[in-house]
Every structure is written in structure tokens, then in C-alpha cells.
Amino acid sequence: MKPYSEDFGITNSEGTASFCFSYFKGTEDIDEVSSDQNLVLKNISIDGNLMIEFRIISESNDKNLRTSVSYNIIILLLIIKRINVHVKHQVF
Predict the structure, then answer these.
(1) Closest listed residue to residue 66, CA positions, set 30, 43, 38
(2) pTM here?
(3) Contact call for residues 50 and 37 (beta carbons, < 8 A)
(4) Which class for 20: exposed (0-12), middle (13-18), buried (19 or more C-beta within 10 A)?
(5) Which residue from 59, 69, 1 is spatially nearest to 33, judged by alpha carbons?
(6) Is 26 helix (H, G, I), strand (E, B) or coil?
(7) How many whole angstroms separate alpha carbon 53 and alpha carbon 44?
(8) In contact, 69 and 19? CB cutoff 8 Å
(9) pLDDT at residue 5 above 90?
(10) d(Cα 42, Cα 68) in Å, to the nearest integer?
(11) Mean of the pLDDT values across residues 21-42?
């Protein structure tokens, strides 16, 4: 988010990214199969002064797609200095 933002939204963000995997089985929006449809797990493994590490796992409604994302964020003097992301998509 941009400094001093009061509302969460795309217009107040400095950058966005989406790590889901999706495809369509037809021509309508309801025909989308996406790995971000159900949250399976969210876990904070490190919550320190200089680094935060967390993991999010999500899957499609039919459980045929799964995405695991690990985030590692390094902070120096309350400013985010580096974000490392590891993404793993699985098709069953």
C-alpha cells in the first residue's frame, strides 16, 4: 500500500501480483477452475523484527488444482526491503 493510504484497493497499491493457476471449461465465468477458490492453509512460520515468513495454500473447488506460495519478507527500519516468493502449482 502507498504511504498514508486509508482504503485498501488497487488504486492505493504500489504493486500487485496474483499467483493462482486457472483455466476455463466453457465460455462463462462459472466455468472457471482456479487454484484460488478455496483456502486450505495459511501459516506464519517466522514473525520477527527483521523478517516475516508465511505460507498460503489454496485449491480449486474440484480439488484438481493446488497452489502453494511461500513469502519471505525482509524489513529494515519499518521499510520492506525485499520480498522473495516461491510458487508451486500442482495439477491432479
Answers:
(1) 38
(2) 0.76
(3) no
(4) middle
(5) 59
(6) coil
(7) 6
(8) yes
(9) no
(10) 10
(11) 93
